Amino acid sequence: MNNSSHKDAFPLDRLAIGKDPKAIALVTRQRSLSYKMLNHRVGLMASWLIAQNLQKGDRVATWLPKTETACLMPLATARAGLVHVPVNPVLKVPQVKHILNDSGTKLLITNASRVKAMESESLPDILLFDDKLVSQEVDIEVISLPPSHIDADCDALAAILYTSGSTGRPKGVMLSHANLSFGAISVAQYLKLAEDDRTLCVLPLSFDYGQNQLFSTWEAGGCAVPLDYLTARDVTKACAKHEITTLAAVPPLWVQLVEQQWPVESTVAMRRLTNSGGALTPMLVKQLRAIFGEKTDIFAMYGLTEAFRSTFLDPKLIDENPTSMGKAIPFAEIMVVGADGELAKSGNEGELVHAGPLVAQGYWQDEKRTGERFKPAPNSSKYGGTAVWSGDKVRREADGLLYFVGRDDAMIKSSGNRISPSEIEEVAVESGLIAEAVAIGIADERLGHAIHLYARGDKDGDTLEKLSKYLKQNLPNFMHPHHIVIMTDMPKNPNGKIDRNALKRNATS
Predict the structure, then answer these.
(1) How many domains would you assign to the chain?
(2) Rounded to an integer, what distance in angstroms lies between the CA atom of residue 209 and that of residue 499?
(3) In whole angstroms, how far apart are CA 268 and each of 192, 352, 411?
(4) Which of 104, 105, 295, 427 has minimal Cβ neighbours within 10 Å of its Cβ?
């Protein structure tokens, strides 16, 4: 049910070939690998996997920090004809057990302590391996499997990426070689990545945005530097140490990063910052601009795991349009569809519908939820076929720029008004009194929804009183929060985004 027939698609493992065999492709805490060595190691890993008596299409999971194995396994499984299931390292045993059972994983690679933890679970059909022992066994492999032929089946399943599961059991999104290779080409193209770029990979490799940090960098022939960080300060230090040119993050991490001191050696090489997983606020754009200056491009992006990435905003436009999602990325067709099924007129709201070769193959063994999200593209679509109906409300202005309005299920309906949480949140952050804000609608017999605002800031002093006063001065009456909570920290989901559902549960408990 994909739309991936296109001459530019290629088997994912060919990313290991690179443009210059001598150029450095990967820098981990253990060592650096040239593209020649990257390709060789991927081939050795593929041979090792085949030696474990796995059959074509079997699922192989990694539950690891950003080790060499974790970085190379997406390409090694692809070369071996297997399917990779990356598991976020912050997940706990019950969550991991669900993913392994749901995906039908045959082999799991993790660290020694987690191998012991999983051995106590009822997983008789899963081979468990310690990452360090795997590396040792790969070292003594004799045959390095060569890259897949360029004409190999690019519609074959390459990976299953599980959503964070903040709204119930996580769903496994099925991604083909074409989905992933098109994503690498697209991002490398619109970010204008080059062979001398160095990308600091701070996001989880189990996250589509995090995984693409590797893929798009390798597509361009650049160098990927994966980092498991404990504090935001670790990120600034790594930027200086590795002369980083490209840094990607989600808004909660950007909020932490702008609170750091950025010495000139941490910013001097930076060419671009990229954001997804939530909108950048105007205040955050100003703060990033103050740190990195005009020489660094700021890319605001919007995406969803079911279609990887949909839009990006030309960095030349971000200062004057900081809240815009921009326009479609290469290989994506983005439509704004009204309730009548027709394309919405400029300025009108509609559902964002994404068609084209980035559209995933559906949810693993879940026909019901697949049918709800993956449906035929509108008749006006140039790609046709299956499209992702995102459930996100957006509007397209006359200049073609898209703006996020909100999810239908997240909209606050108070006193007869439909309110986008982001409208309240942006004004709250613009006050300068807090760093982050989340507005939630809680069921109320009289109002429909009562507005609860959670804000991260200084709990001492008169922050609450000042914020309440500011919001009353800058928001219409029907948007005034009925309840404000000042917090020292916001709950996060495994991908580093603010966990709105945890806040909602807190409000109703």
Answers:
(1) 2
(2) 18
(3) 18, 38, 41
(4) 295
Give dist(CA 467, CA 295) in Å, integer.
34
Whether residue 452 is contained in a domain is answered as yes
Q: Which range marks the domain in which residue 415 is found?
A: 410-508
Q: What is the CATH number of the domain that holds 80?
A: 3.40.50.980
Residue 428 lies in a domain: yes
What CATH number is associated with residue 473?
3.30.300.30
State the pLDDT at residue 406: 79
Distance CA 325, CA 318 (A): 10
Angle at Cα 334 formed by Cα 329 and Cα 335, nearest 5°? 165
Contact by Cβ (8 Å): 166, 500? yes
Q: Residue 29, SS3?
A: coil
Of 152-156, 327-331, 421-425, the least confident? 421-425
| pTM confidence score | 0.86
Any residues with CB less than 8 A from the CB of 154 and at least 6 apart, and which?
4, 9, 10, 11, 176, 177, 178, 181
Classified as helix, coil or strand, 158 is: strand
